[in-house]
């Protein structure tokens, strides 16, 4: 699953919650996050607070791991060709 977008993280949290046999209400109780917020985060709503996501991760016994992604590169030749002079 994609762990680089709000939708991907939400999907991973939902899968872990379901694997634990928990309802959204149970996860809300264990993480201290409201049930509506759990639903928003699981659906990939991009405005979920990071602290609440981390509380859900901790309650589910998960670890959030950041990894170096592929390098973002661009060519100055392409940039110059596509840029209007000032």
From TrEMBL:
SUPFAM superfamilies: lambda repressor-like DNA-binding domains. InterPro entries: Cro/C1-type_HTH (IPR001387), Lambda_DNA-bd_dom_sf (IPR010982). Residues 13-64 form the HTH cro/C1-type domain. Coiled coil: none annotated. GO terms for molecular function: DNA binding. Gene3D superfamilies: lambda repressor-like DNA-binding domains (1.10.260.40). SMART domains: HTH_XRE (SM00530). This is Helix-turn-helix domain-containing protein.
